[in-house]
Amino acid sequence: MTFLEGFRLAARGIRSNLLRSVLTMLGVIIGVGSVIAMVSLGQGASAEVTQRIANMGSNLLMVQPGRAVVRTSGGTRVAVLTVAHEQAIAAHASAVAATAPELSQTANIRTESGSHEFQVIGTTASYLEIRNTSIVSGRMFSDEEKRAADRVVVLGANPAAELFPHTDPVGETLRINQRTFLIIGVLEAKGDSAMMSADDSILVPVTTAEKRLFGTDALRMINVKAVSSDHIDAAEAQIERILSPMLPEGAEIRITNMQQMLDTMEETSMTFTLLLAGIAGVSLLVGGIGIMNIMLVSVTERTKEIGIRRAIGGTPKDILVQFTLEAIFLSSLGGLIGIAAGFSGAQLLSQAMGWAVMFSGSAAVLGFGTAVTIGLFFGIWPASRAAALDPILALRHDM
Amino acid sequence: MSIIAFDSVSKVYRMGSEEIHALRDVTFRMAPGDFTAIMGSSGSGKSTMMNIIGCLDRPTSGSYYFDGRSVGTLKEAQLAAIRRSKIGFVFQSFHLLTRASALENVEMPLVYAGVSPKKRRQQALAALDQVGLADRAHHRPYELSGGQMQRTAIARALVNRPRLLLADEPTGALDSATGHEIMAIFRSLHAEGMSILLVTHEQEIAQCARMIVHFRDGEITSVTKEQREEAAAL
């Protein structure tokens, strides 16, 4: 008997008991489907994060205080990181190309259209260079405005669109925490609705944030751009050396670079992927056992058919091939349905939740391959039981 | 050369500690083109005899030659090849696959013989035509009468042009009128030169054969040859 004949027989066997076949496939469908959906969503998310970090540049470092403010032994409260620290780094670290302070808080923004909450970042003009962004309309604040702590703001793309949907915001005013500010510029849209994205922020001169808005000089972080990505370690060491004598006692700082963040992200997403693979593996195992169970029932039910086939000249191998192919047919059909279900499920989820999704051909191939293997692995035992039946006894079987 | 040659064949089954001698030292010959009936009550060993002749079972001792070939030493796949190409089976309860049409049932031996689908269809239709069922080719077994089912089974047995037709109580599940129709088919096949071996417990059916072999307790008790043959010889 040829392989093709075996396949036709298997297809007929499945068709003749369609409902049971579909129920049997369900385990594999769910298993493969969830693998595909999870891989698509996982890869989409990790690609987005990687892209975002890469956008910011891999030669970026962030200096953050352990706590923004510490209490000295004298009892006074002192900011850990201030503009003075930022300027010291800019002046003395040779591996550093640029620095920008960030003194940020969420603030209430009021315009004619109503009240909103946005992150207000006190910084300097070098923020643009470090965050790899630029002004699309108007201008960045000048050194003069910074010195004078003028009440001027530059809007990120999202606040600009939200607060002034129909007009150019440059030249308009808005109120931050009840104080009126003049809008002098708008940032370009980076399109990455990410954490730490400049898109969602409102920029003011750092002096303005200190004196007119938040009443503190404690920075949330100092952004540092190394000369190149090869200078990151050197920059880190220099920052450490410059800052440590300047820090108040008991204060700690943390220096993170983008490469480290990238590594952490990848590690996290790997752990996540392994966890999902484990869950998917269990569901595929259950699906496989389901197929084995049904194949065993099927062999018992069709004992007489097996006897007839043997009597008219089918060899044990023919029977083995027929039943194994039937199991493989079931599982691979389940695999194909699972792949389709997984992809459409991921698509639906991404549309409903706004998650990034990435379809990978290798995941589909892997899912299908796993399904076929499961059919073979769990089908071979029932099939060999069928092949081993004594034709005389099988013919006598009542059913 | 005989198509069937049994030389002191014995078959012993073991049921727990007990040994059951299904066949004791049976020696038997059947010439090609013969029509032989094996008679005996249930438990006489005629079914075991039938299974060994049909290459479904192997003797415990002694030797069995089918069409000049020793069967005792053959492997399962080789036995299947003999069944596939040289023997046609007809069973008491028809043994048709209920999910397949009459035509597909008849085609089945050809599937295992590796015949191409197109040729298979032609041969199966010819075999159905031979038993007068060409117009029922696409009916399922449950849409056929008992006689039609048995004729389908005969077509299936004939489709690979076997050397021997082996029928186990072929009329046992049929009323006597239908039984006679089936026996008429066997007689005409015999007239065309087919070797037929029939197992039955009905005297009337056995009378159709030219030679009747009586079985009892695993042994041949008597062999009756038809008188007509002798009359013709005179």
Folded structure, characterized:
The complex is a heterodimer of chains A (399) and B (234). Chain A is an alpha+beta fold and 399 residues long. Chain A has two domains: 3-52 and 264-396, no CATH class; 67-251, no CATH class. Chain A has helices at 3-15, 18-56, 83-92, 127-130, 143-148, 157-163, 206-214, 232-243, 258-301, 303-311, 316-353, 361-387, 391-396, and strands at 60-65, 69-71, 77-79, 96-111, 114-123, 135-138, 152-155, 173-176, 179-187, 201-205, 221-226, 253-257. A six-stranded mixed beta barrel of chain A has the order 4-5-10-7-9-8. In chain A, strands 2-3 form a two-stranded antiparallel sheet. In chain A, helix 11 (316-353) runs antiparallel to helix 12 (361-387). Chain B is an alpha/beta fold. Helices cover 36% and strands 28% of the residues of chain B. Chain B has helices spanning 46-53, 76-86, 102-113, 117-130, 146-158, 176-191, 203-206, 227-233; strands at residues 4-15, 18-30, 35-39, 61-66, 69-70, 87-90, 164-168, 195-200, 211-216, 219-225. Chain B has a six-stranded mixed beta sheet, sandwiched between helices. The longest helix of chain B is centred in the C-terminal third of the chain and has 16 residues, at 176-191. Chain B starts with a strand and ends with a helix. Mean pLDDT of chain B is 90; it is low at 230-234. The A-B interface holds A 1-2, 5, 9, 12, 16, 304-305, 307-318, 391-392, 395 and B 51, 54, 56-57, 76-77, 80-81, 83-85, 89, 91, 95-97, 99, 108-109, 111-114, 156, 160.
